[in-house]
Amino acid sequence: MKLTFYGGAMSVTGANYLLEFKAGGKDLRVLVDCGLFQGSKFVEGLNYAPFGYDASTIDYLFITHSHADHVGRVPKLYKEGFRGKIYVVEPTRNLMLRALPDSWNHIAEEAKSDGHPPLYELGEVDAALDLIETVKYHQSLPLAPGVTATYYNSGHVLGSGIICFEYEEEGERRKIYFTGDLGNSPSLLLPDKEFVEDADYVVIDSAYGSRTHEDKDSRSQIFRQVLEHVVKSKGTMLVPSFAIERTQEILFELHQLFQNESVPMMPVFIDSPLAHKMTEVYNHYQHYLNENARSHFLSEGRSIFDFSCLRFTDAVEQSKSINAVEPPKVIIAGSGMSVGGRILHHERRYLSDPRNAIVFVGYQVEGSLGRKILEGAKEVSIFGEMVPVRCLVKGIGGYSAHADQPALVDWITQANKAGKLKKVFMVQGEENSGKALADIVKNKLKVEAIVPIQDQQFDL
After folding, report:
1. Where are the chain's structural domains?
2. Is residue 28 a contact partner of residue 144, using CB atoms and an 8 Å limit?
3. Over the stretch 101-158, which tens digit does the pLDDT of each residue have?
4. Which CATH number fits the domain 2-211+401-459, given the four candidates 3.60.15.10, 3.40.50.1950, 1.10.3720.10, 3.90.1150.10?
5. Between β-strands 161-169 and 147-153, what pairing exists: parallel, antiparallel or unpaired?
6. Regarding beta strands 236-240 and 357-360, do their DSSP bridges make them parallel or antiparallel, or are they unpaired?
7. Distances from the Cα of 211 to the Cαs of 111, 249, 406, 407, 421, in angstroms?
8. What is the pTM for the complete model shown?
9. DSSP single-letter state for residue 323
């Protein structure tokens, strides 16, 4: 079996991995994820480069979850000739149905301003989505003689999965696991990620491979303290947030804080049409949430993502009207890394006032505006204007959807419980994160650990 890293390699986002099997005397070609490269303008330019393989020869595409760096180039794959099956866990399909058309709008606008055709056309989004077939966790999918695939819950976002490919080679049954992004369990909303014990090979996310999150009990405390700051100063709290999972967790957190009277009620705006749509998907798939979240649905008889002072501002004029609302107030808007979307308009307006605050609740990739603000930039460029950063800046790692270094090491340790783990590949992380995690795996577990580079191929 051959494994090639066409994305998600060292310091390059945009997960895209190719597996090539010999099965039943025939070649079987399987892709795992097909994401957008994100970060600097140079890295994003990789999205327009041709794939490193003939898309028409791919038999299956397996998606780990619905974030753009894992699904954002699926329509481009269709454009270049892919006509195979796309497998996803059930909620992921509904999230993609909403996310990909929204992503196309941003791609088309950016392409127009840069003076070139978009990455793909809207019709190719619809055509690609028609290829999707949904599966359930633990459902075994036969792909070819001797080759099967199975999803396990990764605990990252709604419908996210760890994918196991089991195959026969040289008379032995072997298993390779793609973790996608492992979740930061326990989550406010999702069941804990699942562990495995019988891996031969592992491809694992290393975004937090060099870091440890603060204690989860402290995340609510820090969040509450920032809310208290804007209440006292009569300011505005900005939360750049991903439409999937982070927004829903923050809504659940705010709902509980207001309900418990930990902080006074104040206007809360979800200034993201996509986040509104995604929240509706979460409401639909309550049975995929953890027991605590489900119990709140049942006890309250209404959505846990809704409360009296919450407003969804879908239309542009509604978004602009937020400015007229007297503080204190909370504005939750995309994008989560401040690389586009409505959050930029709010940051331009509110960053310069020390009465205000900005809270980052997700991973900020190198080169993003969010990363610059979080790392202490005194001023940043927004829409060509230099904006001073004088507000309170907080990053709360406890809300991250990514497992940190101790959790990643624990998962790999469990995956080697059968004692047959041969190689671990660290992906989707910056160079220092991948190498830090690799060093621990080598030294503690005595297992070969590799941080692959772009387009690198391995015979396994």
Report:
1. 2-211+401-459, 216-399
2. yes
3. 999 998 998 899 889 999 999 999 999 999 999 999 999 999 999 999 999 999 999 9
4. 3.60.15.10
5. antiparallel
6. parallel
7. 36, 22, 8, 10, 24
8. 0.92
9. G
